[in-house]
């Protein structure tokens, strides 16, 4: 009898331990157990949030949870969501590291600045290129001014002029415009894309790019499960997604190779400043400097320095993707909002006509005004900010990992190694800061009209999070704001 009870006892002990480890501890004892649960299963199972993500309802569902339960909620045994400025400061300005979730943005099998997990390697990469996207560089870059002039007057307006009278697919057109602007700054005008004129290729490219959208779930949320399934012959990501990724990578590698060949051959004698590959140039010289100064001691020795060609292409394709898509989405929503408000269009047109030069097509040599003058237009700024608030192009979760041994969030102690994230969709819908948050009300950003107190203005600006915050915030925010400023008037003139 006693002999028989030993295995039984062992089984019982394992069951008790499992119940303790996977149910009692996370639900009642873990420091996270004090945080309100977004769903009753959240303390002991990630299935609810996984399903919510799989069915593309995360932004809405987490927003509803925050409205009901407050600025911090638990969404899975080892994951929380935050939605207040103090939390944003702790997590994002506090430099919490990224995790494996971002590995999907490793292109060509090597990391780029965006996908780096750790802040040291991230900073080394950022040093090489951030200057090209600084506000002063954007304002003063002769290459950028020449590129914008060529793209707007040489490509965009002729495309609008020759468009079908029934209407224009603005989503498609804006994506083409932002892609041409982005790649011109990266690779130079002649070696960048020409999506505005090459309609067939842009449609093919955008199909490849957009088509992959529904296939990121397993790679980002269940990478180990994905690998295991692959081992036993089950392919959760279809082959055509791999093929699309390959083609997009080949295309970007070709742009890099062409621009590098140009830099070696004719760049020195080319008088057209628009052909300057500003970002690529900065990255190549940054890598060269890192090699020379630090060599094997560099934190990038085993990545960017070892796989130089692939690392350059990995960084470039990330900017191609991040740059064209976010700005294209913004301009599309902006066009939609303007199309619903004729008086706003009239006011905006009047503001723009006050500029010198005023961009009118009837001018003998139409010219884009200085970016400083465009930046200073209050109504233009207000409609852009309100579009970015209500229709944030990256509205979803931006996960980070809490540091060891622990940190404090929303008054709760949170142990190290916990996934924590915020989403602009919710941050931008705080009704105390943005009254009637679902309404497109550009006057929130017009200080002469809205009657806000100094404190209200400060709060409004503090809660604006379209570009994220801290050391990993958008490196292209100035480029984006600059790029959208001169494009918008074209729609109106
Ligand atoms: C309206 C336009 C844009 C919006 C709303 C936007 C938004 C963002 C956000 C929210 C992040 C942080 C994401 C995260 O941590 O998960 C980010 C990062 C980034 N964005 Fe943008 N972006 C825009 C335009 C651009 C442009 C034009 C570029 C061109 C280079 C760009 C390049 C990047 C890069 C490289 C990062 C990673 C920065 C780092 O890790 O240090 N973005 N962006």
TrEMBL record:
Keyword Iron attributed: yes
Cofactor(s) it depends on: heme
Organism of this sequence: Hyphodiscus hymeniophilus
Transmembrane segment boundaries: none
UniProt-recorded name of the protein: Cytochrome P450
Family: Belongs to the cytochrome P450 family.
Swiss-Prot/TrEMBL keywords: Heme, Iron, Metal-binding, Monooxygenase, Oxidoreductase
Binding site for heme: 474
Single GO MF descriptor: oxidoreductase activity, acting on paired donors, with incorporation or reduction of molecular oxygen
InterPro entries: Cyt_P450 (IPR001128), Cyt_P450_CS (IPR017972), Cyt_P450_E_grp-IV (IPR002403), Cyt_P450_sf (IPR036396), Cytochrome_P450_monoxygenase (IPR050121)
Highest taxon of source: Eukaryota
Coiled-coil stretches: none
Keyword Metal-binding: yes
């Amino acid at each position: 009898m006693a002999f028989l009870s030993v295995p039984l006892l062992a089984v019982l002990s394992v069951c008790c331990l499992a119940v303790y480890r996977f149910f009692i501890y996370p639900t009642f004892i873990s420091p996270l157990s004090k945080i309100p649960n977004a769903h009753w299963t959240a303390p002991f199972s990630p299935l609810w949030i996984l399903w919510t993500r799989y069915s593309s309802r995360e932004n809405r569902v987490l927003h509803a949870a925050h409205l009901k339960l407050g600025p911090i909620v638990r969404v899975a045994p080892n994951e929380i969501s935050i939605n207040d400025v103090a939390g944003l400061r702790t997590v994002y300005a506090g430099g919490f590291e990224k995790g494996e979730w971002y590995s999907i943005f490793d292109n060509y099998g090597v990391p780029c600045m965006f996908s780096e997990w750790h802040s040291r390697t991230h900073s080394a990469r950022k040093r090489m290129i951030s200057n090209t996207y600084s506000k002063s560089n954007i304002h003063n870059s002769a290459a950028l001014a020449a590129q914008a002039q060529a793209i707007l007057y040489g490509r965009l307006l002729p495309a609008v002029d020759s468009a079908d009278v029934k209407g224009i697919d603005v989503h498609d057109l804006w994506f083409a415009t932002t892609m041409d602007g982005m790649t011109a700054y990266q690779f130079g005008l002649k070696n960048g894309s020409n999506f505005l004129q090459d309609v067939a290729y842009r449609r093919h490219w955008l199909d490849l790019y957009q088509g992959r959208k529904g296939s990121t779930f397993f790679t980002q949320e269940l990478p180990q499960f994905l690998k295991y399934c692959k081992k036993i012959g089950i392919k959760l990501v279809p082959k055509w997604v791999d093929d699309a990724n390959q083609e997009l990578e080949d295309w970007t590698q070709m742009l890099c190779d062409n621009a590098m060949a140009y830099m070696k051959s004719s760049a020195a004698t080319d008088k057209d400043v628009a052909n300057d590959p500003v970002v690529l140039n900065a990255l190549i010289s940054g890598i060269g400097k890192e090699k020379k100064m630090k060599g094997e001691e560099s934190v990038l020795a085993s990545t960017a320095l070892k796989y130089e060609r692939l690392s350059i292409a990995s960084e470039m394709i990330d900017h191609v993707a991040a740059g064209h898509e976010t700005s294209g989405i913004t301009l599309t929503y902006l066009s939609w909002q303007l199309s619903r408000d004729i008086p706003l269009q009239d006011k905006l047109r009047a503001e723009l006509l006050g500029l010198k030069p005023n961009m009118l097509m009837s001018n003998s040599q139409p010219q884009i005004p200085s970016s400083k003058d465009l930046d200073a237009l209050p109504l233009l700024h207000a409609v852009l900010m309100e579009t970015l608030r209500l229709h944030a192009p990256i509205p979803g979760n931006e996960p980070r990992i809490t540091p060891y041994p622990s940190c404090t969030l929303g008054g709760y102690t949170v142990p190290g190694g916990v996934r924590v994230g915020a989403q602009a969709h919710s941050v931008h819908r705080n009704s105390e800061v943005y009254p009637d948050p679902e309404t497109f009300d550009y006057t929130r950003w017009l200080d002469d009209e809205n009657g806000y107190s100094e404190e209200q203005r400060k709060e409004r600006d503090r809660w604006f999070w379209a570009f994220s915050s801290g050391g990993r915030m958008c490196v292209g925010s100035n480029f984006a704001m600059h790029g959208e400023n001169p494009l918008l008037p074209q729609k109106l003139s």
